[in-house]
Write a structure and sequence with these properties.
Rossmann fold, 2 domains, three-stranded antiparallel sheet, alpha/beta, Dehydroquinate synthase-like, alpha domain, 14 helices, seven-stranded mixed sheet
Length: 355
């Protein structure tokens, strides 16, 4: 087992993110440090269950926990009220109480589904995150945002529930198909654009592939700081949505066939080109961002028209009345929130597609 890095997230309540190899094998031991023996419902999907469910169940039971598990069909198409209701019914059938815990074992969809179920069940029980993808490790497992998709758009129903602990086993990255690893790279590169040159450079020089633990830790530290300062996304935390307005529109237009990370990559490249074309950047950055994304096997544009994307984006949760807040990259390591009329969204997206 590799050395374990730990990062404190000072929310209320505070929790610790542990990053390193072999953590699923010892998850029971680690969770005993923050949980008294209780019933743990492991929520996972049909892709992850055959790989890791037995390991996690065995470790939890060995540490004195009573374990039950629920597996739902993998994929964004399961991120809905039907799956949420099935999980809630399962928790009730298993007689979980407020002293028990939900464990989210999987990627971003599982983390969202299990976290939202934990936030709803009995008006809130504890949840631990066991991310198995790069995307969930660098982003979605930390910060307490949980949600499901509605017909009108992505992540439109949800709740904030900070996890009791996050255990990120980097050995899981070895089992990821290239396209799934690239999904996580998109969110990590986004964080590099937000944070600073030194982090962004790690994606340009190949460190993400060679030493993912270091990149994950850097991304988590950055996000932890933002979440500590703005837990409920009233200001600074909105910056973490860089590229996401267009990304969510791409996902919706595709019927969620395009995975989140690939959509984020295209959305990031499009908003960078738009910002540069409209004179909002402090220096040329669009080509550099696009090259970094392409190096990780990610798209830098989309087949959907500006009209289709603008229409889909009108249901985005970042809209407020007649305005929508966009995250504009000024340079690597500096982004700003820009409120624009929704009527300006079409020409902005068009500039990003044509730039």
């Amino acid at each position: 087992m590799s050395s374990i890095q730990t990062i404190q997230v000072h929310t209320a309540p505070a929790y610790e993110v542990s990053i390193g190899g072999g953590l699923l094998h010892t998850c029971g031991q680690h969770l005993r440090e923050v949980l008294a023996p209780c019933r743990v419902a492991v929520i996972t999907d049909s892709t992850v269950a055959p790989l890791y469910l037995k390991t996690v169940t065995g470790s939890l039971e060995g540490a004195g926990f009573t374990v039950c598990s629920y597996t739902f069909p993998a994929g964004e198409s399961s991120k809905n009220f039907i799956t949420l209701a099935a999980i809630l019914e399962f928790l009730a059938e298993q007689h979980l109480t407020r002293t028990d815990c939900v464990a989210a074992l999987g990627g971003g969809v599982t983390g969202d589904m299990a976290g939202f179920a934990a936030a709803c069940y009995l008006r809130g029980i504890r949840c631990v995150q066991l991310p198995t993808t790069l995307l969930s490790a660098v982003d979605s497992s930390v910060g307490g945002k949980t949600a499901i998709d509605l017909a009108a758009g992505k992540n439109l129903a949800g709740a904030f529930l900070q996890p009791t602990a996050v255990l990120c086993d980097t050995d899981c990255l070895r089992s990821l198909p290239a396209a799934v690893f690239a999904d996580g790279a998109a969110e990590a590169i986004k964080t590099g654009v937000l944070d600073d040159e030194s982090l962004f450079a790690l994606f340009e020089d190949g460190t993400l592939t060679a030493a993912p633990e270091e990149v994950i830790a850097r991304c988590v530290r950055y996000k932890a700081g933002v979440v500590e300062r703005d837990e409920k996304e009233q200001g600074e935390r909105k910056l973490l949505n860089l590229g996401h307005t267009v990304a969510h529109a791409i996902e919706k237009c595709s019927g969620y066939a395009i995975p989140h990370g690939h959509a984020v990559a295209a959305g990031l490249a499009i908003i960078a080109r738009a910002a540069e074309s409209l004179g909002w950047t402090g220096e040329p950055i669009a080509a550099r961002i696009a090259a970094c994304l392409a190096k990780s096997g990610l798209p830098t544009t989309t087949e959907y028209t500006a009209e289709a994307l603008a229409e889909a984006a009108l249901s985005d949760k970042k809209r407020a009345g007649g305005d929508i807040t966009l995250v504009i990259p000024k340079k690597i390591g500096a982004c700003e929130l820009k409120k624009v009329p929704v009527t300006d969204l079409l020409p902005i997206i068009r500039a990003g597609l044509e730039g």
